[in-house]
Amino acid sequence: MMLEDDLRATLRERADEPAPAPDLLDAVRGGVRRADRRRAAVLGAAAVLVAVVAVPVAIAGGRSPAPAPPGPAPADSAAAGWQRPRFDLPVFPLTPGWTPPGAGTARIGRVGPNVLLTYDDSPDRALELSVGPEPGDWWVEGDDRPTTVNGRPALIRTLDPEVYVGDRPGDRYVGVRWQLADGRWAQLGSGSRNTEAEVLRFAGGLRPQAMAPTPLPFTVATAPPGLVAQVIAKDNLCLAPPPALTDGESGRGICLQLDPLSARIEPAPEDERLTVGGRQATLETSDQGPDALHVRLDARRLLSITVEQEDVPLTRDQLIRFAEGVTVPE
Question: Helix, strand or coil for residue 250?
Fold first, then answer.
């Protein structure tokens, strides 16, 4: 039998065999990693990051990237038609008349249709107030009991330190939900050392007076046109098409996140290793396109830019171009 006949016979024998198990494992791993990125916006205290990602990206090692057409595309062509985005910053409709001592500075943010007022300078006095067409999140399971806020019916949920699993021993949970006169929902939550009486005093002192916006946590030099800020938080910003503003789930579109380096997940073997401004970086890619670019800024800090391709389709070059225009103000 000739060599060609041997090869033909072998191919016939293997044609009906199922694909090897690692293909399924890779698919599951990719799905889990994409699901992990759809987490809630992080509003807690974290290291304030001062970094500029404004340099070309060069491959520094690791696995070889997927084959591309000959010759790299210029950065400007990757962002053809892009522009500097202009965002309508959220205005919070209520002003506190009293805050717990040591609560620090208020920060205004957004998750979908709801606007947020957050105090997170002190872990002992952290508070989050949500106002919008949808009720906020209770954060924990528990039994509710009736109360009032400024004469309006409300529900309160509490968990003692012996039951509530907070960030530190002694933390307690207090949550209050009520409707404003215009029908919008207000939800106040505390998972720190604030007492029930202090949380109710804060809620009762709110008056209908707008608070000025606070600055965004990032400056974006260029982005696909038409995007809006779907999530705004202390260390988190998500840009998505306008319909995403009706979605109360965080993580839509292109999201920028600052994290301590300890939150970094070890890169998978198939992730592409890059350098960004001389810093180590990894690029995650799925069948839909690039999923995430993680840049190690220093020994403590990590910048992650993730993409939901169904919201904002981006190529590899476009994601890199977007990252080149991101600045974190001091």
Answer: coil
Q: Which residue type sits at 43?
A: L
The residues facing 290 across adjacent strands are: 285
Tell me the backbone φ, ψ of residue 201, rounded to 5 degrees: -65, -40
> What type of residue is 48?
V
Strand positions, DSSP E, the chain: 51-53, 57-62, 106-111, 114-119, 127-132, 144-149, 152-159, 173-179, 185-190, 219-220, 228-233, 236-240, 254-260, 272-276, 279-286, 289-296, 301-307, 326-328
3-class secondary-structure state, position 305: strand
10 Å CB burial of residue 150 (0-12, 13-18, 19+) is middle
Which residues make Cβ contacts (< 8 Å) with residue 248, sequence separation at least 6?
Answer: 111, 112, 113, 114, 134
Place of tokens 């009706």: 246
DSSP SS3 for 237: strand
Place of tokens 């990894």: 282
Q: Would you state the structure tokens that stand for residue 258, as one six-digit string?
A: 């600052």
At 144, the pLDDT band (50, 70, 90 cuts) reads very high
What are residue 58's phi and psi, to 5 degrees?
A: -125, 140
pLDDT 10s digits, 8-19 = 454 445 444 443
- The 10s digit of each residue's pLDDT in 17-56 is 443 333 323 332 333 333 344 433 333 333 322 233 333 3
Q: Please spell the DSSP secondary structure of 23-73, one letter per residue.
A: HHHHHHHHHHHHHHTSPPP--S--PPP-EEE-S-EEEEEESPPPP--SSPP
